[in-house]
Design brief:
Layout (H helix, E strand, L loop, with lengths): L1 E5 L10 H6 L6 H4 L7 H14 L4 H10 L6 H10 L4 E6 L4 H10 L6 E5 L3 E3 L5 E3 L16 H14 L6 E6 L2 H7 L7 E4 L4 H12 L7 E2 L5 H12 L1
Parallel strand pairs: 1-2, 1-6, 2-3, 6-7, 7-8
Antiparallel strand pairs: 4-5
Helix pairs in contact: 4-6, 5-10, 7-8, 8-9
């Protein structure tokens, strides 16, 4: 059994879903720039509250999420994974939100492939507004206050070990700076799949230059997720 960990924004989908939600909508100046040094999660809470007051309803948000295009080759990768679903356990760890992620995965017909989705909780309140909260708190100095993906991944692996599930290898598919932190826990048996030219890829390259051998996992950059599918296909041979 292999564990395959996915990020969502700019990994499964080809955009940042928070940007997709505000595209074409007039925001006040205070909400137009994401905060420097402040909490991005809190910023998005304010953005969603503002849009709710402007009459944007959960159904409107759902339609936006459903229409975000998948990243190149991602449909092909999911096709491969659904064919071999008994070999791969899939989890998703994302700093987006549960509402948007689940809407998109259902629309793409791949929701059932995922055993667990870890993301910031989003729900509809009494007013019919979409609201957002932080995922958890943690002590990691590298990550945003609302989410450390390393902590989530480590706790998940420990929980599965208690359930007598040991993975032969862990594969991590991501793109962002916040995907670098969890990929640092991967061992020499594991593989990091950073999206080519994105922050996760650059941070891995920098760490390899600074401290050769410190980043233990094999690194397989991708432009199309079909390359990830091909790598996994070879592995099964």
């Amino acid at each position: 059994r292999f564990l395959l960990v996915f990020d969502f924004d700019e990994t499964i989908v080809d955009e940042n879903s928070d940007d997709s939600v505000v595209r074409g909508r007039a925001l006040p100046e205070a909400l137009r720039q994401s905060p420097r040094g402040g909490s991005y999660n809190e910023h998005m809470q304010r953005v969603l509250a503002f849009l709710g007051e402007q009459g944007v309803r959960p159904a409107d948000f759902r339609a936006v999420y459903e229409n975000i295009p998948l990243s190149p080759g991602m449909a092909e990768l999911f096709q491969f994974l659904s064919k071999h679903h008994e070999l791969f356990e899939l989890v998703l760890i994302s700093d987006a939100n549960t509402f948007g992620i689940e809407a998109k995965l259902r629309a793409a017909g791949v929701h059932s492939l995922f055993r667990k989705i870890f993301s910031n909780p989003a729900s509809v309140d009494r007013r019919g507004f979409l609201t957002l909260g932080p995922y958890h708190s943690h002590k990691c100095l590298e990550c945003p206050a609302n989410m450390c993906k390393r902590k989530i991944l480590s706790e998940y692996l420990a929980e599965r070990a208690r359930e007598d599930v040991e993975f032969q290898r862990v594969f991590y598919v991501g793109d962002g700076a916040n995907d670098f932190c969890p990929s640092g826990t991967l061992t020499a048996a594991d593989v990091a799949f950073p999206r080519k030219g994105y922050p996760m890829h650059r941070l891995i390259q920098e760490s390899q230059e600074k401290q050769p051998g410190a980043f233990q996992a094999a690194v397989v950059p991708w432009e199309s997720a079909a390359e990830v599918a091909r790598y996994l296909q070879e592995l099964l041979r």
